[in-house]
């Protein structure tokens, strides 16, 4: 009896807070979306606020965020997306309370242990972007095991940014270039790109940020600078489901990517003469 009541209470707490977004729009099942981004990057924001609104500890929000990520990883290949890059833990997140940092490290380790077999079975290739050396040994080993086990998968590429910072990434790239003895006049944009964590993956086509914030927060600042499209939603990440993901993809489908060029626009359609006379 007590278990049943606890379950009812949990189900109540897990209900999404009313969103200011428009009603859900189903993703086209017939492939009618003309353009789908190959590479989508997500700033998974709002876990803590999700928990606070439900009078739960912040750790509950982070656990709900893992479940939301699992849903998006499942949905991405069905929507035609081939690569996801997700912002899991930034170099600035070490400044959070130690209890929360410890809880996040526990969650990362448990997530790799819990989901690795399933992700491998579903053809997901896992890669890590960030500084491994600062991570807890068990978390570091969990990442290395996941990368090695899934390296031959190709259904979906999942890049996990853990202990990642865009500025730190550029610093590490410059240090590697200097260590190679490269002459200053030989440093080019391409050379820097070749020394980034993401040196062999394409730049993101679409960057999604949840929870209504309008900033990059040190995420893929080199890669996203080159004409990535941006999409912000007020939905907190634990409530970000396939329908919300499809809305972001639909918004991308309606964009025109110019890459600094002039793209000819369709001329306006002239109104009928009789309508002008009215």
Strand order of the largest sheet: 3-4-2-1-5-6
Global outline: globular
Our count of helices gives 9
The stretches of 5 or more residues where confidence is low (pLDDT under 50) are 1-30
Taking Cα atoms only, what radius of gyration do you get, to the nearest Å?
Answer: 21 Å
CATH superfamily: Decaprenyl diphosphate synthase-like
Instruction: Write the CATH architecture name.
Output: 3-Layer(aba) Sandwich
Helix content: 40-55%
What class would the helix/strand composition place it in? alpha/beta
Counted up, domains total: 1
Beta-strand share of residues: 5-15%
Number of strands: 6
Would you give an account of this structure?
- With 278 residues, the protein is α/β, with parallel strands linked by helices.
- The protein has one domain: Undecaprenyl pyrophosphate synthetase.
- It is 41% helix and 13% strand.
- The chain contains nine helices and six strands; from the N terminus they run αβααβαβαβααββαα.
- It has a six-stranded parallel beta sheet with strand order 3-4-2-1-5-6, sandwiched between helices.
- Helix 5 links the parallel strand 3 and strand 4.
- Helix 4 runs parallel beside helix 5.
- It is globular and about 55 Å long.
- It starts with a helix and ends with a helix.
């Amino acid at each position: 009896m007590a278990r049943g009541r606890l379950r009812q209470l949990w189900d109540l707490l897990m209900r999404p807070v009313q969103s200011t977004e428009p009603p859900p729009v189903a993703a086209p099942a017939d492939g009618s979306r003309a353009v789908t981004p190959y590479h989508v990057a997500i700033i998974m924001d709002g876990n803590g606020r999700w928990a606070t609104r439900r009078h739960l500890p912040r750790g509950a929000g982070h656990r709900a965020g893992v479940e939301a990520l699992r849903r998006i990883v499942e949905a991405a290949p069905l929507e035609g997306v081939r690569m996801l890059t997700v912002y899991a833990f930034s170099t600035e997140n070490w400044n959070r309370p130690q209890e929360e940092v410890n809880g996040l490290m526990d969650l990362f380790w448990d997530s790799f242990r819990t989901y690795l077999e399933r992700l491998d079975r579903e053809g997901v290739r896992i890669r890590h972007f960030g500084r491994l050396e600062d991570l807890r040994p068990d978390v570091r080993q969990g990442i290395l095991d996941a990368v090695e086990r899934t390296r031959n998968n190709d259904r979906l590429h999942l890049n996990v940014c853990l202990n990642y910072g865009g500025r730190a990434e550029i610093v590490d790239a410059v240090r590697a270039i200097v260590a190679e003895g490269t002459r200053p006049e030989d440093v080019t944009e391409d050379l820097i790109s070749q020394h980034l964590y993401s040196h062999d993956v394409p730049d993101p086509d679409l960057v999604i940020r949840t929870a209504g914030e309008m900033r990059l927060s040190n995420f893929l600042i080199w890669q996203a600078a080159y004409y990535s499209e941006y999409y912000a939603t007020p939905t907190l990440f634990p409530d970000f489901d396939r329908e919300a993901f499809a809305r972001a993809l639909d918004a991308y489908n309606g964009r025109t990517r110019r890459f600094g060029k002039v793209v000819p626009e369709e001329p306006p359609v002239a109104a009928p003469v009789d309508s002008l006379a009215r």
